[in-house]
Design brief:
Layout: H1 12-24, H2 27-30, E1 33-35, E2 51-55, E3 60-64
Parallel strand pairs: 1-2
Antiparallel strand pairs: 2-3
Amino acid sequence: MRAIWKGPFIDHYILTQVDLILKFKNKRFISTIIKVWSRHSIIFPSFLGLNFAVPNGKIAFLLCISKNMIGHKFGEFVATKKFI
């Protein structure tokens, strides 16, 4: 659990990439996929509708951020273990 006074954690790389995409608001940039290595980063409301590639240790899975994902972490949506 993270202390409230610290605020939510987000990797600086993710914020710069999202700001770049939202700055231009071009269809070419909207369809781009942002690679996320920081699975413990929080999903912000400004990420709504963007595509992210989140690794599980072997391959990266594509996530399209929806309204229900806001406030959760990227790692919650990609399982790292394969259940047989």
